[in-house]
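pipeline: protein-struct stage 2 | run 1193 | JmjC domain-containing protein
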Amino acid sequence: MSVKTREELVGKRFTSVKSDNKLKLSKVSEWEWRSGFVRAVSTRDTSSADFTVLVEFDDTGWKSREYLKVHEVFQEFLVEHTLSWVEREEPNYKPHDGPWPALCYRAIVDKVGLFEHSKRPVEFLSDRFLAVVEQKDITHYKDGDENSVSTAKECPDVVKWLKTWSDYQDGQKILLTTPTVLLGYRVEVYRTEGTTQWYTAVIKSYNHHNKSLTLTDDTVLEEHNEDPTLIQMHLIGDG
């Protein structure tokens, strides 16, 4: 089975480095990495010098979210690409050692040339611990791995993490590839401004020309036009 990925950035984890000093690849594990979520982007063109990302850093919380021109601000800005298995001495679950699920990244900004070398940062699902490992030690997750990988068979939480991640990818794929089947469904949408983090809405229509959804905010009954590739939203409910 193929590796599960999606191209749009919204809703993904990111990790980044901002430094006034020259970064040494030999000390990549010592860089001051900061991680969080991508909530919205300015354009689909990530190579644009003006490409802007609305980020939430883990260490400040959503109320301190900020828009950043990542090509100007960061030496490294890496965004979740897919799920992988990486060997680890897991401190909180049994079995303590074995392959554990972790996010691996692709580079949006890589001024130091990290991805020209063999070291890669990964983020474990169990505790969001960021580790730097050799690329050869990363095995990409495929559907069905939960039935064969030892840690998944022995630790029920692993199966839950895998399902949560996989279900979200599937929901995003529907939003982007077959949105017309979702008319009448409810979604939770990230609120880029205001005093709340999310609002809930009903999908009313889809514009094939500009790829946007017309949503009715089900609290104040206002209409919004949102592009699911530019702002995070997710389906509410099962199925």
